[in-house]
Amino acid sequence: MSASAPYPEFWVRKMRSFFVKFDHDLDGVVKKEDVMDFCNVRAKSLLNQEQMETYMDQVNYAWDYFWAGPEKKMSVTFWDFVRNHARNFREPDFQEEEKMWFCVYFDKIADKNGDGIVTRKEYEEFLGLVGVHPLSVPPSFDALDTDGDGQISKEEFVNAAVGFFCCTADTPAKKEYEEFLGLVGVHPLSVPPSFDALDTDGDGQISKEEFANAAVGFFCCTADTPAKLFWGPFLA
Question: Which residue numbers delimit the EF-hand domain (predicted)?
Fold first, then answer.
């Protein structure tokens, strides 16, 4: 990813929706002590002692690694938070660390009875740890339950959680294009402007004609056109 690449609006909105869960006074700053206190209060009413200890260890680790960043800040602004999570697209180990972190969340906290799946009730209580209202849970549960069996598997849980922080695509078509460019190592943050340039009719999809025209146009056209943006991510 180029250092000057803009953050996609959709991805920034997701980061903001998570950040404000902990920015209770809406001053644009979140402090570690406030996160720890809030999570501790919620955990007392939803977890047993063993689960609570694991959860608070996870929260503490999350602050140090995902929020505070290399500088180990004790308070962060929203844009500090955004820049730190953009490490997902620069450091492969960062995303792998997220996967391992969410696996622990599933095994030790979300899956309360240890049967390998998360029920609607378990998922509701899990989201309750960060103050999500029960009425907001059903659509989220249904989105994670990708095979429609009425349960959330560990794979579904971890994929969705990591995808929240890593995926920049807001439609299936953009997701496919992101995965295509990922085959040659293009960072997801570089994808949205390229997709929009190729989608010449603005229908939210790239047709075979649009794709081929942009690719051929890159080699044949000397003018500033969307064709350049098709290859822009490769040259960043």
Answer: 108-133, 141-167, 195-221
